[in-house]
Design a protein that fits this description.
Blueprint: E1 2-5, E2 15-19, H1 24-28, H2 33-43, E3 52-55, E4 60-65, H3 74-90, E5 95-99, H4 109-123, E6 141-145, H5 151-173, H6 181-195, E7 198-202, H7 204-209, H8 213-219, E8 227-233, E9 244-248, E10 250-254, H9 275-289, E11 296-305, E12 317-319, E13 325-327, H10 335-346, E14 353-358, H11 362-368, E15 373-377, H12 381-394, E16 398-400, E17 418-419, H13 427-436, E18 443-447, E19 453-458, E20 462-465, H14 470-478
The chain binds ligand BES and zinc ion (2 copies).
Length: about 475
């Protein structure tokens, strides 16, 4: 799907107008003469909220009424754009044009204009790799007409970030017999070569030499070796600063291990358990594609979690990379085991901030559903607020949960330094407290268990892997002062 800016409307192409009270006459003025005449009578009817459509054999116009400009939320425009893309494919169009203009100053102008660049890509996404008969969408190109002074930067950036998001969807949707930990690392390597970020992959021997006990323990039940992948982005012109680090959970399939998941259906979608690592890869592609001048490092521990004959076992005590001990009481709490080693490893880079992303707990999913992700932070409040604000602007919303000290009491073990589960209550929080132990820097943890995957289609986020958090991370990092 290609998105390009256009300077005028082509009278031969299907045309979608996104009308506000303020831009109505501006947009109608762009329409070819005979059509405009025919519409003029309708113009009064086409008040701010009324949508209308005009179709002749030669011309198709769809106009969506969005109300007053000042009250227009980017998410409303995104959803309306999604509807337009759906209709265009339904009508088997190959090339369409989208027109939206702003008349006044709008505090969310950037996100409104970016919607035009991102939604055609996000809405047109398909995963057809394993279909013998590939029923491709017909839509190949969307021309975007808009008027903001920053339009060329914003639209092209948004398209690039959306494409990075669809790369993550591909990674999440890949079946686990294809996307092993080694394959995940290879894909990261290929993308690094393509986009110009550094990729170093540690194999099992190196992981062993580095004493990554958590990652090795989870990997013991598997036939396939683990990987640990380090991404580096420090473009010319980036400030000489402490790095920002992104850590992603890369469990390429989670059976639960010996503490096997209780039902077949609870395993149905567990190829999505590498969505955190996927988001990190996607964020790097987005940062590189848009040339964001920051120093960023990505860390991705990866393995599958299986009940093979040598599998790590409830009651095992595992010595982690930081030398502390963990009593395993549920092998299905594997994400924190592998993330803990990455979080310890992150210390050596003296980061200004570390953000981990993980499909970590059913508890987070149960708490807020796929409408958002659960966020934990011990970083300073203004930075945390900025991340939450990015979440609202790109509509990858975060809700902050506590990291109160007494939740750690729930992780006390009789024989080791801590255990890997905290009991039936506050599961997302005790998981975050477990992770926090392995940090010594400002830390944010995002539990993306619910929004990383959709069972049914959800607007422009689609069905199955959503690529969640790429747009969030790109927005947050690219706007850091
Ligand atoms: N990968 C799962 C969490 C998950 C659940 C992700 C649903 C996506 C959708 C994770 O490894 C897990 O199994 N967590 C357990 C932890 C428990 C054993 C303490 C959970 O949340 O049930
Ligand atoms: Zn698990
Ligand atoms: Zn898991």
């Amino acid at each position: 799907m290609e998105v390009k800016l256009i300077e005028a409307l082509d009278p031969t192409l299907p045309t979608y107008l996104f009308l506000t009270q303020e831009n109505l006459s501006q947009l109608l003025a762009l329409i070819p003469e005979p059509v405009r005449k025919a519409l003029e009578s309708k113009e009064k009817a086409a008040d701010a909220d009324a949508s209308f459509s005009y179709r002749t054999p030669e011309f198709h116009l769809e106009a969506y009424g969005l109300g007053a400009e000042a009250a227009l939320e980017p998410e409303k425009l995104r959803k309306t754009l999604h509807g337009a893309i759906g209709q265009a494919n339904h009508l088997k169009y190959k090339n369409i044009q989208l027109a939206f203009t702003l008349v006044g100053e709008h505090p969310k102008a950037e996100y409104l204009v970016k919607a035009l660049g991102e939604i055609p890509v996000l809405s047109n996404y398909q995963f057809l790799a394993y279909k013998s008969e590939k029923k491709h969408n017909t839509l190949l190109e969307a021309g975007v007409y808009t008027n903001h002074a920053q339009k060329s930067t914003w639209v092209s950036q948004a398209t690039a970030v959306a494409k990075a998001t669809t790369l993550v969807r591909d990674l999440v949707n890949e079946p686990p017999n294809v996307l092993t930990a080694e394959e995940l690392a290879r894909r990261a390597k290929d993308l690094g070569e393509q986009w110009g970020f550094g990729v170093e992959v540690w194999d099992k021997a190196r992981i062993h030499d580095e004493h990554m006990g958590g990652l090795l323990a989870v990997n013991r039940g598997s036939q396939d070796p683990p990987t640990y992948t380090i991404l580096t982005w420090k473009p010319e012109g980036a400030p000489d600063e402490k790095p920002l680090i992104l850590v992603g959970k890369g469990v390429v399939f989670d059976t639960g291990g010996l503490s096997l998941k209780p039902t077949a259906s609870s395993m149905d979608y567990m190829k999505c358990d590498m969505a955190g690592a996927g988001a990190v890869i996607g964020a790097f592609v987005a940062l590189a594609a848009t040339g964001v001048k920051r120093h960023v490092i990505g860390l991705m521990p990866a393995t599958d979690n299986r009940p093979g004959e040598n599998a790590y076992t409830p009651n095992d005590v595992v010595t982690m990379m930081d030398g502390s001990t963990v009593e395993v009481l549920n092998t299905d709490a594997e994400g924190r085991m592998i993330l803990a080693d990455a979080l310890h490893h992150a210390k050596q880079f003296k980061p200004q901030l570390v953000i981990s992303l993980a499909t970590l707990t059913g508890s987070a999913a149960a708490a807020i559903g796929s409408q958002g992700a659960v966020a934990f932070s011990n970083a300073d409040d203004s930075l945390t607020e900025k991340l939450l604000a990015s979440g609202f602007l790109v509509h990858e919303r975060l809700v902050r949960f506590p990291l109160w000290a007494d939740y750690s009491d729930m992780l006390k073990s009789d024989i080791a330094d801590r255990k890997n589960i905290g009991g039936p209550k506050a599961g997302a929080i005790t998981a975050a407290k477990f992770l926090e132990h392995f940090t010594d820097y400002p830390y944010v943890h995002l539990d993306i268990a619910a929004p990383a995957w959709n069972d049914k289609p959800d607007d422009y986020r689609g069905k199955n892997g959503t690529g969640w958090a790429v747009r969030l991370l790109h927005d947050f990092i690219s706007h850091l002062a």
